Amino acid sequence: MSNERDDQRIAEANDLLGLAESIQERYEVLTRRWILLRTQIALLTILVAAAIIGVYLFSDIRDTVRQYVLAVGILYLVLILVFAFMVYERQRGPIAREARALAQVVAILHEIEASASDLQQWTALERAQFRIRLARFEIEPYGLRMVGPSARNSLWRGRRS
After folding, report:
1. For the chain, how far is it from start to end, CA to CA, in angstroms?
2. Contact 151/35 with Cβ under 8 angstroms?
3. Residue 135, CA distances (Å) to 78, 106, 109 in order
4. Do residues 141 and 123 touch, judged by C-beta distance below 8 A?
5. What is the mean pLDDT of residues 103-112?
6. Can you give the pTM of this predicted structure?
7. Residue 119 is inside which H or E element, if any?
8. Would residue 154 count as lying in a domain?
9. Average pLDDT over the chain, rounded to an integer
10. Cα dihedral sign for 52, 58, 59, 60?
11. For 157, what's the count of Cα atoms within 13 Å in the CB-facing half-sphere?
12. Residue 153 pLDDT > 50, yes or no?
């Protein structure tokens, strides 16, 4: 009976590790996507601004047409920035949710690691494997190391567990 229960606890700990790994993978995918999108928007903004400045400074068109080109270009830049802000806000939510879920799962794993290894009498190799798998997560002792859009305003920064 005790052996079956121990096997079940080992399976549950491994399931939790698998869950944490899948959350970490999703978090990394969302963060990479967010960084790529932010880079694309920055490049587009720079290109449009350079085109506007080039047309305005180096063209031989009348002043009214220049002002029209400048107004349209500024409007386009404002639209790009509004779009960028909307995308930023939309992407921030899922990334923050994944980060919170990962931090909670890893905190649970840290809590059960000591008791599980003592209770189940893990060998040194089994304990090392568990710790190595646990160490792969982007979790610092005081919370999640944020690299995505929530990094500056993170609830996890400085949090003491």
Report:
1. 35
2. no
3. 44, 9, 11
4. no
5. 84
6. 0.65
7. helix 63-119
8. no
9. 76
10. positive
11. 9
12. no
The amino acid present at 158, given as its one-letter code, is G
- Tokens 């649970």, located at residue: 108
User: What range defines the domain where residue 116 resides?
Assistant: 2-144
Structurally, the chain folds into a number of domains equal to 1
- The answer to whether residues 142 and 160 touch, using CB atoms and an 8 Å cutoff, is yes
- Does residue 161 sit within a domain? no
> Would you state the pLDDT for residue 120?
66
Token pair of 74 as six digits? 């500024």
In this predicted model, what pLDDT tens digit does every residue of 3-18 receive, in sequence order?
A: 777 677 777 877 888 8
pLDDT at 13: 77
Which of 42, 26, 137, 31 is closest to 92 using CA atoms? 31
The SS3 assignment for 71 reads helix
- pLDDT above 80: residue 151: no
Give me the residue label for tokens 């969302």.
30
User: Which tokens is 18 given?
Assistant: 């698998």
